[in-house]
Amino acid sequence: MRDPKHPRQFSEEFRRQIVALVDSGKPHAEVMREYDFGKSTLDRWIRLVHACGSTAAADNRTPEQNRLVELGLENARRRVEVDVLKQAALLFARK
Fold first, then answer.
1. Domain that holds residue 33
2. pLDDT higher for 36 or 56?
3. CA–CA dist 88, 75 (Å, integer)
4. How many CB atoms are located within 10 Å of the residue 43 CB?
5. High-pLDDT (> 90) share of the chain, %
6. Which of 1, 17, 51, 87 is such that its CA lies 20 to 30 A from the CA of 35?
7. How far from 70 is each of 41, 42, 59, 77, CA to CA, in Å?
8. Spatial separation of the C-alpha atoms in residues 6 and 44, rounded to whole Å
């Protein structure tokens, strides 16, 4: 039985091989049963490989999506900075 807290991870090469199997005519159900993963996983791999040639999330982002990720990370860093500065201001105000 699979552990939902520790999902299995598959290499990029393995994912491409599975998609190649399906593309060569092997039925979806047979591939899913043989390798023990779900339909949504297989469908996602097929869609990503056909659309972008890769299943890696970073490879499949548009430039706008990459920029949004960068801005989100920067925003999170700034929030931490603001929290630290607020705490420092409180400490100096007490003295």
1. 1-60
2. 36
3. 20
4. 13
5. 46
6. 51
7. 27, 29, 15, 11
8. 20
Residues 39 and 56 occupy one common structural domain = yes
Q: List, for residues 49-61, the tens digit of each pLDDT value.
A: 887 766 666 566 7
CB neighbourhood size of 27 (10 A): 10
> CB neighbours of 60 closer than 8 A, spacing ≥ 6?
48, 51, 52, 54
My answer on whether 56 and 83 are in the same domain is no
Rounded to 5, what percent of the chain is helix, strand, coil? 75, 0, 25
Report which residue type is found at 93. Answer: A
Q: Are residues 43 and 77 in the same domain?
A: no
CB neighbours of residue 55 within 10 Å? 21
**Any residues with CB less than 8 A from the CB of 77 and at least 6 apart, and which?**
none
SS3 95: coil
